[in-house]
Amino acid sequence: MKRIAESLENTYYIDIKKFDDAINTIKSICTIIPYTESMHKNAYLITLDKRYDLEDPDASIYASIKEFASMEEVKNYELLFLTKNWRDFDKTIIKNELNNLRVKMFFSTGECIRWIKNLI
């Protein structure tokens, strides 16, 4: 029984190490988008535009992504947007705009991780 417990413990530590390594790899290729005054203004305008049907904080998230993806410095980046909120973001106008900005949108963590795995 002791051997089984030790084996389980070792497996646990191996799995934790693999998970930590995966998280660190993702962190090394991710960028945190700063929230600017112009993003805030654009978020407000998005809340007024019925085509989006977005309220805050979703409008702020979307405005941030759009502005960041429009920056010249990231034009050669692989950009992704992972959200579980398909009710608010799974809209034709949003999908088209993100596609034009080269942003890949995911509603599934597994699908997103597979996409990232193909990049590295």
3D architecture notes:
The protein is mostly helical. The chain has one domain. Helices cover 64% and strands 7% of the residues. The chain has 6 helices and 2 strands. Strands 1-2 form a two-stranded parallel sheet. It is elongated, with a radius of gyration of 19 Å. The mean pLDDT is 89.
Summary, kept brief:
The chain contains six helices and two strands; from the N terminus they run αααβααβα. The protein has 120 residues and is mainly α. α2 crosses α3.
Identify the notable features of this structure and list them briefly.
mainly alpha; 6 helices; two-stranded parallel sheet; 120 residues; single chain
Q: Which class of secondary structure composition applies to the elements?
A: mainly alpha
Order of helices and strands: HHHEHHEH
The Cα radius of gyration reads: 19 Å
Proportion of residues in helical segments: 55-70%
Oligomer: single chain
> What is the CA–CA distance across the termini?
41 Å
Domain module tally: 1
From the spread of the alpha carbons, the general shape counts as elongated
Q: How large is the count of helical segments?
A: 6
Fraction in beta strands: 5-15%
The main pleated sheet reads as: 2 strands, parallel
- Poorly predicted runs are none
For the largest sheet, list the strands in their spatial order.
1-2
Number of strands: 2
Mean pLDDT: 89
